[in-house]
Each structure stands twice: as structure tokens, then as C-alpha cells.
Amino acid sequence: MKNFKLILICILCFVYCNTINAQQNLESKKEATFTVKGEVIDKDSFDPISKVNVQVNGGSYTSTSLSGDFRINVKIGDEIMISHKDFETIYYTVKSDDDIKVEVQSLIKGVSYKTKQSKVHSFESIIDSALFYKKISAEKSIQFITESIPKSNSVKQNAEAFEVLADVYMHWKQYDLAVTNYRISIKNVNSKDVQLKLAKAFYHNKNYQESLALYNSLKSPDLSNWQNVIRNEGLGDVYVAIKQNTKAETAYKKGLEVAEVNNIKRKVTDLNSKLGQVYTSEGKKRKAEVLLENSVALAAQENKTREVEQKIKFADFQNEKRSYSEEIKMRKDIINDIDIIEKDSIISNESSLTKQKQNYKIGNAYFLQKEYNEAIPYLEKSIEEADVKEDLIVKKDATKKLTDAYVESGNFTEAKKTFEEYVKTVDQLYIKKEQEISQAARFNKSIAEKQNRITTLETDRKLTLSQVALSEEKNKRQQLIIYSLIGGLFLLALTAYLMYKYIKQQKLANNLLALKSLRSQMNPHFIFNALNSVNSFIATNDERTANKYLSDFSKLMRAVLENSEEDFIPLQKEIELIQLYTKLEHFRFKDKFEFQINVDKNIDIEAYKIPPMLLQPYIENAVWHGLRYKKEMGLLDISITKKQIGVITITIADNGIGRKKSKQLKTENQQKHNSKGLGNITKRVSILNQMYKDKVDVFIDDNSAEGDVGTKVVVTIKKD
């Protein structure tokens, strides 16, 4: 009997605790306020109904516009009362943040709500159109906002127009223009929501200090629960960007606490994921794993797309901690999930939710485990899918990795084929990037013109308002006009400055893209020539020599690939590269030339920077077009001397047959073929000199110091 009573007491305590927790959760949900949008229309004619009273029980109040729309602040569980003289009052309980559509039946038979005014596009209806086109067409959306500004009859409406305009710019990644328009909106009405958006725009525009200052100026007691979550998440993002992980961790934890207490599920998922990524960067792998697993489980409660997004982040984490088997298993599940998602929606190539990307990463994981035969089918599948989706970036990466897999597995024939395909893909990608840059320039020009139009309209609107006020206060007329003109000029100057800044950044981006393309062309050209040498040894059945050559060649390739992404490397590394390369060429043509490399001991070779693989094409030309054709033993002399303070010269001199005689020996086909190596070097030097103010100079002349003419290349390098 006593045991029965004890069990009964435990059950009652359990039920009581659950009831208390449920009540606390319900109260937490109710605390989160948000804006809900709705419309009221006639059930039969579908005409919008204006001037309908919309009131929250004991809270906010508003009425519908001419287009039948309304917006009102509510909480979960609030009751909205919708009333009008022509229909029965409707009561609606808020259960989510979804839009509300109310269809009503008139009490008076034959009444029509359609008026002449409803045909006129109001400010609200135009703004709604702008929001509709926000993610579809930037030009159309901005055009609607341009039309809305003359119809604005209050500072509140004007603030809303510029907020929507800034939202459009944010979606299309025009962050500098978004900053400008959020500021204009805040000048009209100082809204906490817009301030949070401005702080986020600062972050995306890499104005990190401005973003931090604005987030820190917003105090928690003045913000709603949702706004507090957004503020702390934004602070965490900025701290991650400036590599202050401890502060980022603190901010994310604060945001997560508020989100959990108020049951803001989407943000609980996001903050678990972001906090896990911070722990990963700090090396706290176990903590990171727990949080990332939580984010997957939480996202699964929302929708399939959110779940797959978090799974991808978790798979990336497994890759980082080298748990390749677990990564492969998860990515295979992800591919099955993507098949489900693709039935209901179209996935763009920019999304991480593409099968070509996941197959590539599976292949990469097998490659890292040195299971090359397992990696090859997934990489081939990634290339096939990338071809179908016209995803050149993934195709490039997958083709390069497939080449590496064939090389590692010893299948050099297939490696050569895939490498040739890789070179073609790089060329196609470069052409596509040029087209995208051109399209982006046209898009930005169009956006800038529309922004100038809006700026002009805003200035005109201010001038009009000033003139109305001046009719009442003549004494202030001149002062107000001057201030308006100054404001307009300031906006125009700011727009001009932002355009100049963008053009400058675009030019730099073009130069960097060109350099990257030229570097990518240099490596295939160099590798092709080296592989020809290996082929020559194999053709003569000199397997031992070929193996020794390949061993030295692999050392050189490792050094080349390590430096392939850099614009400049220390001179010492370049000397090591040319020593390796010249040794390889001498290894093949021992009976044709000797070489010597002399470096002035007074030169601090660590203090000078040089473009990688700058000297190799000149050495290659000296050997292949000069010394190779000499009947007697030739000499290749490479010397590095100090010209003056901060300037050195690198001389590559040979006593070969000379440029003129070499040209005469070329076949007709060889004469038609341009040297890619020297051509690419010339272009690289030209671009680098534009970017770094004449850092490198190259001079080529005949070398008449010896009996034969020979060739001399003099490269002049300036210290940084």
C-alpha cells in the first residue's frame, strides 16, 4: 500500500511539473511579437475592401488600405477582431506568422466594394508590387519603388520605401547601396528593425567596425525577443569575420538562450550550427560535433531543405576532422535527400544542395583516404552532372581531382586525357567569368541609373515640401532651399564615390582573375613539356632514367603547385625552382650544355619578391631553342647581381645558336605556333606592373660576348 501511494505521488509530481513547463513555454511563445500581413476581400467579387477596422484584443489597431491590405503587430495566441459596417465581425486567433486572407460576405445584397479609388495604384499597392519582384527582377522592383516615392505623403511612407529599396539591394548583393538607403530610411523614421538591417549591411560590405558600433548601440531592454536574437547573431557573425572567436562564442550563446526561451525554432537551429562552427575553428571538436548534430535534428523538424543544409555543414565538419568514412556515408544520404527536394523545387548551381557538389566531395573524401578506384566513379558522376547543369566551377574541380586520382592510381593515359579536359574547362570558365563580369557591369550601370533617378526624386520631393512650407514662412525660404540642395549634392557625391569605388574594385577583380587564368595556363604548359621528356625516356626503354627523372620532376611539381596561387614568392624559392628545373633539363641534354647559377652574396634573397615561374620559360627557351642545336658543348649562365639599392638583376645568358638562326631552323608549323610560355609571362608582367607600379622589367637581347651569338635575358626586380 505504501509503495502504491509513493508511485501515485511521483505521477502527480510529474504531471504537475509538465503542466508548469507547458505553461512557461506557452508564456515564452506569447512574449515574441512580430508583424503579420493580411488582406480583406469580398468573397463573391474578390474586390479589396478598404477602411476595415483591424484590432488586436487589448493591443494594436489599424485599418485596411485602398487595396484591402493591413499590417499589425501581434503575438502567438492573440485574437484579431476584423469589423466593418457592411459585414459581420470576424474573430481570428493568431497561431503563426503566416499571412492572413479574409473573405467576407456582405450583409446588404448587391453591394459592391469596388470604387474608382481602388483602380488607382496607392502607395501601399506599389510597395507590395516592389516586394513581389524583389527576388525575381531587381530592375522591376526598383522601378516600382521609384513610382512609389512621388506618392509618399508622410515620413513613415518615405522611410518604408527606402527600407524596401535597401532590402532589394541586399538581396542582389549591392551592399554599399543598401547601406546608403537604410541610412535614408533611418533619417526619416528611426526604426530598430532598420538599424539591425543596416548593421547587417555594414557586415556584408565589410565595414566591420561600423557594424559592431551599431549593434552595440542597440540595447537589449529596448528590443523585442526576436530583435535580441538577430542582434546577438549579427554580433557573432562580425566577431567571426574579424577572428575574435571568444566574443563570437559569447554573442551566439546569448542569442541561443533568448531563442530557446522564446521557442524561436529557426534561430535555435542557426545558432547551434554557427556556435558549432566557432568551436570547430577553436579546435573544440567534441563540443562542435554535439551542436552540429543538434542543428541537424532541429532542422529536420522544420523542413527537408533546412535539414539537408545542416547535414552538409555537419559533413564539412567531418571532413575537417578527417572522419572521411562518416562524411561519405552522410553525403550519400544527402544525395538521396536532394532527389526528394528536386521533385518540388529547382536548385541553383550557387546552392550547396547540388548533387554534382556532393558527388565531388564524396570522391574527394575517397581520394583523401587513398581509395582512388572508389573515388573515380563519383568524380566522373560529378563531372557528368556538372555538364548537365552547366556548372563549370564544379566540373573544373572534379576534373582536376579525377586527373590526380588517375595519376595516383598509375593510369597516366587517362590522366593525360582528363588533364586536357581540365585545361579546356579552365578556358571555358575564364570566358564565362568574362561574360559574367560584363553582365554585372551592365547590371550595375542600370542599378546606378535607377538609384540616381530615386535620389533625384527624393531631392525633388524634399524641394516640393520645402516650397509648401516656404509659402507660410518666407523668412526661412533661402535657408531651406540651400539645405535641400546641399543634401542632394551630398547624395549625388556619395553615389559618385560609391560608383568610383566599385569600378576600382571591379578593375582589381578583373586583374586578379586574369592573373589566375594565366597562372593556370602556365602550369599545364610546363607539365606538358616535362611529360614529353618523360615520354622520350620511356620511348628509348630507359626506364631507370625515366624513374629518376620522374622523382626529380615530382619535387619540382610540388614546389610549383605550392606557389601556384601566389602573385609573388620570395626570390629564394624561385632560385630553388630554377635549380630543380635546370637540373632536369641538363639531365636530358648532358652532352649539349653545362650550367652555372651564381648569386651575389651581398644580396638578401629573402627580401626580394618575384612572380612564381617567371624565369623558367626563359631558361626553357635557352635550352630548347639555343643550346640544344649547338654542335659543341654550350654554357647556360644564370647570375643574380645587385644593380643598385633595392634593385637586382637576374641575367640568363647562353652561347647557343641565337634567336635569328633558331628562327631559321623552325619548321613552317613551328613558325605559325606562338610560344604560350613567353606570351603568358609577358601578359603577367604587364598586369603585375599595373597593379604594383613597375616592379618587374624584362629585357631580351643577343649575347655577343662569346663566339656564337647566343641570347641574353635580363630581369630587373625592385624590392617591396
TrEMBL record:
GO molecular function: kinase activity
Signal sequence region: 1-22
Signal transduction histidine kinase internal region domain ranges (all copies): 515-593
Name assigned to this protein: Histidine kinase
Segments traversing the membrane: 480-500
Cell division as UniProt keyword: no
Pfam families assigned to the protein according to its UniProt record, in alphabetical order: His_kinase, TPR_8
Entry keywords, A to Z: Kinase, Membrane, Signal, Transferase, Transmembrane, Transmembrane helix
